[in-house]
Amino acid sequence: MASALGWFSIGLGLTQVVAPGGFARSIGVQDDSSNRATVRLVGLRELACGIGILTRPRPAGWVWARVAGDVMDLALLGRALTSKRNQHDRVAAATFSVVGVTALDLYDSVQLSRRPGATTGRGLWSRGVDVKKSITVNRPAEELYRFWHNFENLPRFMSHLESVKVLDERRSHWKAKAPAGTTVEWDAETTEDRPNELIAWRSVGDADVDNSGSVRFVPAPGGRGTEVHVEMRYDPPGGVIGALFAKLFGEAPEQQVMDDLRHFKQVMEAGEVVLSEGSFDGARIVQRPAQPPANVSRR
């Protein structure tokens, strides 16, 4: 069965890479440049999985990677079903087919993982992603700590966060954007809190995405403000395969955290995030060229 799934991945992947427009039309999705790019990326993923399955003596990990890919495909098809531009009957039929393939992939993954000496697939399925980034902000540590300590402020500069609701002194509820227009939610608890120095947190309970993180505020040399050091670890949906797929869509966690830190710097120094497409002021996007506000002197 694994060999059959491997050849299926290669055949499907070649079709998606060579004829993305025709494939999109066949499943009822509008044939445009954006959808063609998505189909090609999915095709590259299928080719990688197929080659991995056929060239490994114990391919359990790569079959688990197919399961992760199936979940992503179902999310994309679910999004396609909400668009009026697509043919819903064909998209629904494609979704039903993917559900069937997912069942086969899952069954084969479990069977292969039970074999002696098999790689269970957790290296591909559940390995965490670690990110460490820092930036210097021209503000005292006390001010930065006070702003960050109220987690409800985080969506002001973290573009992937939709909302954070503080539940009590230690717990909060987070809602974030995920690939393919989906969202994920989790509860978090503060694990360490040293005023003006450190805040650490971790997800608890049945989180959609297990994660943990910390932010340290260290006085910068020469009185240049405060160094903000962020460390985060999370288990993305689909594990490392999911993280790689997210990177193909421009959602690499390293770049995302660095962008968020730059936005934090702008919020604290200028009072808003200034972007070339517009500036994020609270929950409002103001369209204008990238430039500092008039009341902030140029450095």
What report would you give on this structure?
The protein has 299 residues and is an alpha+beta fold. The chain folds into two domains: 2-124, no CATH class; 128-286, 2-Layer Sandwich (Alpha-D-Glucose-1,6-Bisphosphate, Chain A, domain 4). It is built from nine helices and ten strands. Helix 1 (2-18) packs antiparallel against helix 3, helix 2 packs across helix 3 and helix 4 (60-81) packs antiparallel against helix 5. The longest helix has 26 residues, at 88-113. The protein is elongated and about 60 Å long.
Mind telling me the C-alpha Rg?
22 Å
Element pattern in H and E:
HHHHHHEHEEEEEEHHEEE
Average pLDDT confidence is 81
Proper CATH architecture of the largest domain = 2-Layer Sandwich
Q: What's the CATH topology label of the largest domain?
A: Alpha-D-Glucose-1,6-Bisphosphate, Chain A, domain 4
Helix content: 40-55%
Which class of the largest domain in CATH terms? Alpha Beta
The low-confidence parts are: 117-126, 276-299
Number of domains: 2
What profile does the largest beta sheet have? 7 strands, antiparallel
Count of helix runs: 9
Q: Could you state the CATH homologous superfamily of the largest domain?
A: START domain
